[in-house]
Every structure is written in structure tokens, then in C-alpha cells.
Amino acid sequence: MSETEQVGANLCRHLNRAAKEAPYELAVAVQKARGVFSKQLDYQELNFAELDAMSDTLAHGLYAYGIKRGAKAVLMVTPSLEFFALTFALFKAGIVPILVDPGMGVKNLKQCFEEAAPDAFIGIPKAHLARRLFGWGKSSLTHLVTVGGSKLWGGASLEQLKQLGQGKGPFAMARLDDDEMCAILFTSGSTGTPKGVVYSHRMFEAQITALKHDYRIAPGERDLATFPLFSLFGPALGMASIVPEMDASKPITANPDYIFAAIERYQCTNMFVNPALIERLGQAGTSRQPKVQLSSLKRVISAGAPATIASIKRFSEMLKRDVPVLNSYGATESLPLSMIASHELFDTTDITDNGGGICVGKPIAGVEIQIIAIDEAEIPNWSADLCLPNEQIGEIVVKGPMVSPSYYRRDKATSQAKIFDAQGQHYHRMGDLGYLDNQGRLWMCGRKAHRVDCLVDGQQRRYFSIPCERIYNTHSDIKRSALVGIDVKGEMQPLICLELKQGLSCSNAAALYNELRLLGEAHSQTQGITRFLIHPGFPVDIRHNAKIFREKLAVWAQSTYKE
What is the DSSP letter of 304? Predict the structure, then answer.
């Protein structure tokens, strides 16, 4: 009988094992900055035995306070030792954590909590203040816990939970079925309405397996974790999670010095970072004399949005020659799905710059990727006849153990996104467009909602965001571009919004537009595009600073463009 069968499905079995096999090894370190002018950096640490014991105490406390197995608990706590201990306590107790991105905005957060109907709210005072002001979860909440605050907010403090659980010894972990819901993770809402993704232990275990085998993370490593959820995988991998002083919801505001200091102090071997932070750290580290050298890193994992090849090349100057930046493709509903190392990605630059899309690599072990025709209708039943041949652009669909089967209380969204085969297994429609090449590599061509279908010179044309934009981005004056559709005399027409490189102003827009028209006519992907507008600064998502809000740009372009 396997260990999983013996104890049931519970992620915390990995933490238990680490606490027994390497009790005094570092599990978590959190960097804190103090001081007003000259910032001093302090570090708080827990080893595996301490983290296991602390989460046992809190699990007992949660139960004694009345938050029991099956309850749903919002967790809005900043990355800290308490965040780690609370998360593992919730998993141990079989309480379902609801994790949201604070950067999604007040309106979206309220909707998320209404849909999830949480039983408990565990948060820092700032989160409780917002809860009261905006009425989050007002109709369903029965228990409140304040982390780092007073009784002002009602309910219990974290210290009271510790007192309730003190001295009760190891907590008997809840035994869950492999496919039983163990967490709800909300999508960011950067490309649509946020939806609660149902996570099971099977999904988490599949992600852990991928990190072990495809990313080759080994016990004893140390991870510089800039994304709280990824940092939770550390104990499952026997890896220490090092959390730098930063606002995880706004990584572009992170202080590079803090991150470089944390990597150096703990000799981190792994780093999980999004494209916005790759850009910021690369600029900061390579502009110094001498350049910053991150010599302890063995790999860098990037996910969340496509990073530019230029930013990855710049960041790689701080790494040893053979250290890859592993670019991963996926979404909250399914991550990771495919991967490509930086040295291979660099070889695709010419294809990308000429409108071939962005290569996101080959599927990881256990993942199936297919391309189907672009269609807005629901597809209830899977058939091999749905698959398009290689090199043909369509919607990306995926199947694998890390792919969520449903959205929480969103039956319509589930029906639109899932296709079931004869065995009852599900494919997930990513909402992204792309194609598979003859080597089995996946190429991204943008969101399905961002394509522009129109009539150009009497012919039906379809334009895809990434292929079009990457062509115009090769112009020396352009920082980034965005394809949108506008109504011109009753007909949908393509228009390219332009953001100029920092410090540039366009004194002769007509000349620039003419250069871009000529550039576009040289490529089949952009032929027929004749309309351009310069925008002062694209609206982008807070977390990635890379996902362009094309919907907002389309409204702006419609009101601004004059024929």
C-alpha cells in the first residue's frame, strides 16, 4: 500500500516527511526591511520541524475555534511565516483556502467572495478593513481571524488560535479523496471576469511531480519565491522558500537590491519570477559596474505572461553561462503545461519577429496539447476530428492531471471551457490561440478574444494579436503595440495602438505610420492594416505589467480615431 493510500490525499504529508527526515533544515525564510532612510534587512526563519509543529498548533486552534473540515476560508495574509503556517494548517484540517489576487480590484474581489460564499475570513487588519468597507462575504461569514491585529475586527486573533491549539501535539491530517476540492484559486481577471478554479490534491500532486521531474528541482535546494503560491511547493520538494520584501501583487515595484541580497544570503538555487520582474531585475543588475552576478542560481522559472526575448537575454547576463531561464506556459486552471529553455527560445527570435508567434515549448510529461478550430460555441464531447493539423492556428486545448475539472459555482463557464471524452476525462479550452509545429512545439498567437475578424478590400481577414504586434515591435521607436478592432462606417477594421520607447516623442506621426504600413505590407500576417494611433501608456495588469488591456484600448481607439 502506498503512502498516499495509507494517509489519504493531503499535501501536508510532504511537510510531515520533511519534518522527520530533515527537521533542522531551513524551510522558510522571510526578508523584512526596517528603517526609514537606510533600510536594514532582517530575516525570520523556520525549519521544517518548526513549520510542521506551528501548522499543527494552528490546525488544532482552527478546529477548537469552530472552523472545521469542509469549511471555506478566505486567506488574505501577506507572505510571512504566519502565511505558510496558516496555509498548511488549513490543508491539514481539510479546510478549503480561498486564494485571491488582491490586485484584481475591489469590485472583482466582492464578486469573488459572493460566489465562493466563505465561512471564515482570515486576514491582516488592512484586509478586514476592506472587508467591512465593501461588504465582502457579509452574507456567509461566521468566523473571523485577524493576523497581526487586535480584537477590533471581531472574532479571534492569531495568538488566540495558537493558545487554543497549544500543547495538543501532532494534528491528525484530514484524509481527502484525490479529487475532493481542497482549494479555490481565483483567476486574476486580467483577461475577463475572475473565476474560482477548483483545485484538488491530485492537481497539486501533479504540479509537484512536474517540478521534480521536468524542472529537476531536488531536495536541499533554496528557492527565491516572488509568488506566494509557488513558494508553498517548497516543503513538498524538500526545498526552502526564501520570500523577499516586496508587494507580491505588484512585482514591478520590488526593490532589486532586496532580491539580490536574499539570493546572495541564502545562495538560492532556484528562482520563480514573472516577466515584469525579469525586466526590472535585468535592467537594475546589468546597468551596474560590475554587473550583478547571481552565481548560485541553477535555474530561473518564468510564468504568468510571455517575457520578451530581449529582457530574458539581459537577465541572463547575470547568470552562469549554462543556467537556463525556463519559460512556462499555463494558467490558473492548468499549470504548468509546456516549457522552453532560454537557449532554445533565442533560436526562435527570427520566427517571432516575422509574425510566427511566441514559442512556448513542448508539453511536459503527462500533458496532451491539441489545436481545434476557433469557435465560440460550447463543445460538450471530445472527438479526434476536432483536431487541426500542424502549423494551423486554432484554439489551444489541454488535458493532464494538473488541469482543473471545473470552476466553482460557475456552471456556464465550466461548460464553455471543458470538453469531455468518452472516458469522462476533460480537456480544457485555454482561450488562447496557437499552433503546433512539426517538432511538437506549441506557438502562442494571443487570446481568442483579441483576434480581429474583418473585411479588408472585400476579403474576409483574420488578424491575431501576438503575430501582428511582434512585427511592429521590431521598429526601433516602438516599445510595444496592440491590435484592436474599431468600427469604421459600420465595418470592423484592424488598428494598431502604439506605445513609444521611453523618452521618445513623435513629431511626425504621419511619417512613422507610413513606415509601419510598409513594414506591415512585407508580412502576410499584417497585410491590409493601415490604421495606427500613438497611446501615451498602455493600460496593463498590475501583477505582470505585460498583459495589455486591449478592451480598454479598443474603446479609446474607437473614440480617438478619425478617418
Answer: S
List the CATH number of the domain containing 531.
3.30.300.30
User: Residues 6 or more apart from 234 whose CB is under 8 A from it?
Assistant: 27, 28, 223, 225, 240, 241
Domain enclosing residue 486, as ranges: 451-560
Give the contacts of 38 (CB within 8 A, at least 6 positions apart).
none
Nearest to 356 by CA among 524, 242, 180, 521: 524
* CA dist 440 → 84, 339, 391 (Å): 38, 12, 10
Q: How many domains would you assign to the chain? A: 1
Q: Contact 46/27 with Cβ under 8 angstroms?
A: yes
At residue 562, the pLDDT reads 87
Per-residue confidence band for 151, with pLDDT thresholds at 50, 70 and 90: low
Report yes or no on 369 lying in a domain: no
Q: What residues contact residue 17 under an 8 Å CB cut-off, 6+ apart?
A: none
| Percentage with pLDDT > 70 across the chain | 96
For residue 72, the one-letter residue type is K
pLDDT digits (tens, 9 = 90+) for 86-96: 999 999 999 99
In sequence order, what DSSP letters do the residues of 105-134 get, joined into one string? Answer: -HHHHHHHHHHH--SEEEE-HHHHHHHHHH
Name the residue with cell 526601433: 476
Q: Which residues share a beta bridge with 369?
A: 398
pLDDT (average), residues 438-455: 96
Residue 171 resides in a domain: no
Cα separation of 356 and 468, whole Å? 9
Count CB atoms within 10 A of the CB of residue 106: 12
The DSSP-derived string for 321-341 is TT--EEEEEEETTEEEEEEEE
Please state, in angstroms and rounded to a whole number, the distance separating the CA atoms of residues 240 and 231: 9
**Closest alpha carbon to 548 in 430, 446, 433:** 446
Rounded CA separation 229/235 (Å): 12
The runs of H, that is alpha helices, within 341-410 are 342-346, 349-353
Q: Kindly state the cell numbers that stand for 340.
A: 522552453
Closest CA to 448 of 402, 420, 416, 408: 416
Give domain status of residue 112, yes or no.
no
Residue 63 CA: distances (Å) to CA of 174, 175, 504? 12, 15, 60
Give mean pLDDT, residues 198-216: 94
Q: What percent of the chain has pLDDT over 90?
A: 80
CA atoms within 13 A on the CB side of 383: 6
Query: Considering the domain boundaries, does residue 537 fall inside one?
Result: yes
Q: Where are the alpha helices (DSSP H) in 135-255?
A: 158-165, 201-213, 228-231
Contact call for residues 302 and 274 (beta carbons, < 8 A): yes
367 CB contacts (<8 Å, ≥6 apart)?
A: 337, 338, 398, 399, 400, 402
